[in-house]
Design brief:
about 210 residues, mainly alpha, about 0% strand, about 85% helix
Length: about 210
C-alpha cells in the first residue's frame, strides 16, 4: 500500500511540474509577441516622425537639425530628396508588412534600384553639361543649389556616360527603369505597349 501511495504521489508531483512548465511556456509565448508588437509600433512611430521631419526640412521648416539633414540628403540624391522621405516610409512599411516574403523582397530591391536609376537620370537631365566633377564638387553643388542627382546620381551617370556616351547612358538608364517598374508592378511592358498601339491604330482608322 505504501509503495502504491508513493508512486501516486510521484505521479502527481511530476504532473504538477509539467502543468507549471506548460503554463510558464505559454506565458512566455504570450509575452514575446506582445513585446515584439510594442517594439514594432515604437519603430513605426519613430520612422513616421523622421520621414515627416525630413519632408518639411527640405522646404526649410526643420530647424538646424532638419537643415543639416536636408543638406546631406540633397548632397547625396539631389532633387530626389523631395521624394526620398515618402519613398523611404513606403518601402519600410511595405517591408514590415511583408516579412519573410521573397516576392516582397524582390520588389523592394527593384524599387531601390529604380530610385537609384531615377536619381542618375535626373542628374543627367539637370547637370549633364555642368562643370562639377568629383564627388566632393557634386556634393557641394547639389546640396547648395538643390539640384542634380547628388553624389549617387553623379557617380552612376558619370560611369555610364564614359562607357556609352550621353545618349547611350540615357538608353541604359531608361531600360533599367522600365525593368524595375515591371518588377515592382508585375505588369508586362510589352503588353502595355501593344495595347496602346492598338488603341492608337483604331483611333487613326476612325
Amino acid at each position: 500500500m505504501s509503495r502504491t501511495r508513493q508512486s501516486e504521489s510521484r505521479r502527481k508531483t511530476t504532473g504538477g511540474k509539467r502543468s507549471v512548465e506548460k503554463k510558464k511556456s505559454s506565458a512566455r509565448r504570450v509575452s514575446e509577441p506582445s513585446e515584439g508588437g510594442i517594439w514594432a509600433e515604437v519603430r513605426l512611430v519613430v520612422l513616421i516622425i523622421v520621414s515627416v521631419l525630413l519632408f518639411f526640412s527640405n522646404f526649410g521648416f526643420g530647424g538646424k537639425v532638419g537643415g543639416f539633414m536636408s543638406h546631406v540628403l540633397f548632397g547625396y540624391v539631389g532633387i530626389f530628396a523631395y521624394l526620398f522621405p515618402v519613398v523611404m516610409l513606403f518601402l519600410l512599411l511595405f517591408s514590415l508588412a511583408n516579412r519573410e516574403n521573397l516576392i516582397a523582397t524582390i520588389k523592394i530591391v527593384g524599387a531601390v534600384l529604380g530610385c537609384v536609376t531615377l536619381v542618375a537620370l535626373l542628374h543627367l537631365f539637370t547637370m549633364g553639361k555642368s562643370d562639377a566633377s568629383g564627388w566632393q564638387e557634386i556634393y557641394e553643388y547639389c546640396s547648395e543649389y538643390k539640384t542634380g542627382g547628388g553624389v549617387i546620381g553623379g557617380l552612376v551617370s558619370g560611369l555610364l556616360k564614359e562607357a556609352f556616351g550621353t545618349i547611350g547612358a540615357y538608353l541604359v538608364l531608361i531600360g533599367i527603369l522600365i525593368i524595375c517598374i515591371v518588377i515592382v508592378t508585375e505588369r508586362s511592358f510589352v503588353k502595355g505597349m501593344s495595347k496602346g498601339s492598338k488603341k492608337v491604330y483604331e483611333s487613326a482608322r476612325q
